[in-house]
Amino acid sequence: MMLAADRLFDPDPAQKTAAMDLYALVQGLPIISPHGHVDPSLFSDPERRFENPTELLIQPDHYVLRMLYSQGISYEQLLSKENPRQVWQLFAENFYLFRGTPSGTWMTHELETVFEVNEKLNGDSASRIFDQIEIALLSPAFSPRSLFEKLKIEVLATTDAATDQLKHHETIRSSDWGGRIIPTFRPNAVANINTPGWSKNIQALSEVSNIDVTNHASFIRALEQRRSHFKSLGATATDFSPPSPRAEWLPGKKANSIFQRALKGEVSSRDATRFSAHMVCEMARMSTEDGLVMQLHPGVFRNHNPEVFSSYGADRGFDIPIQSEFTYNLQPLLESFGNHPNFSLLLFTMDESTYARELAPLAGAYPSVKLGPPWWFNDSWNGIRRYFDQVMETAGMYNTVGFNDDTRAFLSIPARHDVWRRAAANWLAGLLVRRVIDRQEAESMVMDLAVGLAKKAYRLA
After folding, report:
1. Short-list 275, 265, 278, 325, CA closest to 298
2. Which among 80, 138, 305, 412 could bridge 318 via Cys, Cβ 3.0 to 4.6 Å?
3. SS3 44
4. What is residue 101's three-state secondary structure?
5. How many of the other CB atoms lie within 10 Å of CB of 454?
6. Alpha-carbon span 417 to 335, nearest angstrom
7. Who contacts 215 (Cβ-Cβ below 8 Å, separation ≥6)?
8. C-alpha distances in angstroms, 177 versus 43, 167, 458?
9. Which fold has domain 49-142?
10. Cut 0.90: pTM above it
11. CA 5, CA 455: separation in Å to the nearest integer?
């Protein structure tokens, strides 16, 4: 047994006892995963199996990859498909690097609770643990679909490009399997006009929407068509990640002028900034009409390491947070839609300085605004604690949206939700022992933090 039953809880005896009692109420609840990046192709083929422990646990997890790369281990070594056992051995020998980190906590949870590994991962145990997991993966009980059910995932939302044909989602939906996996509309690659390969993305948008995208007006129609198709396959939300949360309405002629320059490859950085801000407003406008929840994930310098990006592609751990400002930037959008009864805007940040100063006050005032959970580097025990401390008194818990795991690594989903549920129980236990809330309120609140808020915010009930 590597995982202590009372891990992460406050050492004060009264608070720990209360936290463990509250956690027991939600520990076994189904998982609502309303935003993440797991590949839907895992579930479209009922015969699909994971090839080996390396493919499953290491190579999709950019948290793991970036730590190892930061210590001088190359992606060529880590992403090799030729000898997965060798990659696993390298990972195990360096697993000590993850001591005290969220990744270490998640990985240990995955090994113990899913595969019943009862020894620490290191160079000496690597081969034994690899064999144990590899044997398990041969069983139908460890197919992606079977694991989805075993892990008690009630709904899993993937994140899909606006140009994705959603064939895997169609296959899943038309099958006799009962797993609920839904797409999420992500317009980044077409809405951010300085995206590498943007012109090709626009061509793909034309093809998949059957609308010849030649100007701003046809571009908007194509996006609306795609959103409708996503909804038909169960989507309830969109996810836009502009460089900043800046919102700006551009007159039609100006928006089209920028769009035309982009088509010619003549776009400037100012053009890209203004067009992205305009698309923040357009995405909000579309959400008021089709009812899709709008998620905004701004403030990221994507693919910071050009050498890694050119050799190994995106999502290798080199998306770095940048400072964000919300109050002034979002004012044009909220002036238009902040009070709209059919608009729901979920805000995320990696700039924790904005929690108490901007985001909690905005979520605590506008009926359309809700505050998303700690995102990315803040998705940790201490990040969640800071979030509760800085947000809840101002926004109120019911202006937040519970938890989403935002992961590409399928088996880390229950591990991440477990940390959130423990943190929520511990926070509520602190309020309970201080007599801020009573037992009945604490029990109701922990259920909402675990499941209820996410269901409501993402319109999944």
Report:
1. 325
2. 305
3. helix
4. coil
5. 25
6. 35
7. 256, 259, 260
8. 9, 16, 23
9. uronate isomerase, domain 2, chain A (1.10.2020)
10. yes
11. 28
Domain boundaries, the chain: 13-48+150-457, 49-142
Alpha carbons 176 and 340: distance in angstroms, whole number: 39
Tokens of 358: 């901007």
- The tens place of each residue's pLDDT in the chain, 461 residues long, gives 578 999 999 999 999 999 999 999 999 999 999 999 999 999 999 999 999 999 999 998 989 999 999 999 999 999 999 999 999 999 999 999 999 999 999 999 999 999 999 999 999 999 999 999 999 999 999 999 999 999 999 999 999 999 999 999 999 999 999 999 999 999 999 999 999 899 999 999 999 999 999 999 999 999 999 999 999 999 999 999 998 999 999 999 999 999 999 999 998 999 999 999 999 999 999 999 999 999 999 988 888 988 888 888 887 888 889 999 999 999 999 999 999 999 999 999 999 999 999 999 999 999 999 999 999 899 999 999 999 999 999 999 999 999 999 999 999 999 999 999 999 999 999 999 999 999 999 999 999 999 999 999 999 98
Cα angle 159-164-168, degrees, rounded to a multiple of 5: 80
CA separation for the pair 194, 385 (Å, rounded): 36
13-48+150-457 belongs to CATH 3.30.300.130: no
